[in-house]
Design goal:
The protein is mainly α. The chain contains 5 helices and 2 strands; from the N terminus they run E-E-H-H-H-H-H. A two-stranded antiparallel sheet has the order 1-2. Strand 1 and strand 2 form a beta hairpin. Helix 1 packs across helix 2 and helix 3 crosses helix 4. The longest helix has 29 residues.
């Protein structure tokens, strides 16, 4: 404890930062479990949208660019929808829930999409695989696994700073 200034030292699990007027603010750091749950929640919506987009584009024999564009767009739609549903059930209006979902999920979904689509693009032959090919599914699911591992620390960092999914938890 720092008795000379009348301010106690924060516990090891909190971050200490000076506010705009020099006042002390304490934020609790996010646990890895909290970050993993937030990432899994986000990934569940993203995966539904991404898979649906890839299946539609592949089934229609679209080229890679429009298929990926559809998959990414649907990943954002379904990712936001999972959060919107929970927030509306918690009592927020649709407009307020939409603002919270944008703040909570945008970075997480963007990182996830960048990583999982990057994995698919880097796997030889994955971009040309069809729905009946094991390579289609293994590269898609492998991309999700890598995206989860990469996005979890991003979400941990954001939640620890009161951003990302921390915004959603204020409404539960």
């Amino acid at each position: 404890m720092n008795h000379s200034h009348g301010v106690s030292r924060p516990p090891a699990h909190t971050a200490h930062a000076a506010g705009p007027e020099g006042t002390a603010h304490h934020r609790t750091g996010a646990s890895w479990g909290t970050a993993a749950k937030a990432t899994a929640h986000c990934l569940s919506g993203c995966a539904v949208g991404e898979i649906l987009g890839m299946v539609i584009g592949t089934a229609l024999r679209w080229s890679n660019a429009p298929t990926m564009a559809l998959a990414i767009a649907l990943a954002f739609v379904f990712g936001y929808a999972t959060t919107l549903t929970a927030l509306v059930r918690a009592g927020l209006t649709l407009g307020a829930a939409f603002k919270v979902a944008l703040a909570a999920d945008s970075v997480s979904i963007a990182v996830m999409e960048l990583i999982d689509n990057g994995v698919i693009a880097l796997v030889p032959g994955a971009m040309d695989a069809h729905l009946t090919d094991g390579l289609f599914w293994t590269s898609l699911l492998g991309g999700f696994a890598v995206a989860f591992v990469v996005t979890t620390p991003v979400n941990k960092w954001m939640i620890g700073r009161g951003k990302g999914h921390a915004v959603v938890h204020a409404h539960h």
